[in-house]
Amino acid sequence: MGVTYQMKMKIPFDMADLNGHIKLPDVILLSLQVSGMQSIELGVSDKDMLDQYNLVWIITDYDIDVTRLPRFAEEITIETEALTYNRLFCYRRFTIFDEAGEAIIQMMATFVLMDRDSRKVRAVDPEIVAPYQSDFSKKLLRGPKYPDLKNPVSKDYHVRFYDLDMNGHVNNSKYLDWIFEVMGADFLMKHIPKKVQLKYVKEVRPGGMIASSYDLEGLQSNHQISSDGEVNAQALVTWQEFKQENWEEQK
């Protein structure tokens, strides 16, 4: 197992939705901030990777389980650990704890290394991942099979400049924004995600348009992000209903 790393933080106002819950895309942003801080302390920051190897980390898959979403002003602890790696994939765990020390969100992320110029995936050099003390394992963590959409509802979104990160591609949390936003306010006011499985297939080009499509059966939604006739991302989301209450009274 790898070296663990933790950070405490309070949920800021701008990361809370109308129900007072943190937005799940922001959970990803905060979690990646924590793993980035660990990399800096271990001497293998994103800047180091670029300067020494011309490589960037990209995420291919997420598997997220939500017991509950933390609320505005709640203090959480995010813990991360680089678990295992093989020739192409690196697996990292994120766990979000509440103030009582209960695990309320579990997330597994699959990373690969990409050459920044050629945009091609590179094999994992054991020297690069050695500081994380993760184990080498030939075992592959496979995601689900994403079915075709049956009778999809679809909405188009413009890819804006501030949707991009410094590597020139759409920030991976933005895909979740598109996936959730298309569900509509009425649905999102009454439901929160219980499980999210997300696969990135192909980068979205800057400046273009994407279509966010989904179909819904009960509390299971099937999603697809596409552009220029190609699939960019796929997701399966299991939702849970929650009772709307005045979250100001729950703080």
TrEMBL record:
User: What is a single molecular function from GO for this protein?
Assistant: acyl carrier activity
| Keyword set includes Cell division | no
Per UniProt, residues of the Acyl-ACP thioesterase-like C-terminal domain are 150-241
The answer to whether UniProt assigns keyword Transit peptide to this entry is yes
Q: Where is the Acyl-ACP thioesterase N-terminal hotdog domain?
A: 3-132
Assigned keywords, A-Z: Fatty acid biosynthesis, Fatty acid metabolism, Hydrolase, Lipid biosynthesis, Lipid metabolism, Transit peptide
Entries under Pfam families matching the protein: Acyl-ACP_TE, Acyl-ACP_TE_C
Q: Which family does it belong to?
A: Belongs to the acyl-ACP thioesterase family.
Under the heading PANTHER family, the entry gives:
OLEOYL-ACYL CARRIER PROTEIN THIOESTERASE 1, CHLOROPLASTIC
> What name does UniProt use for this protein?
Acyl-ACP family thioesterase
Can you name the source organism? Answer: Streptococcus sanguinis SK49
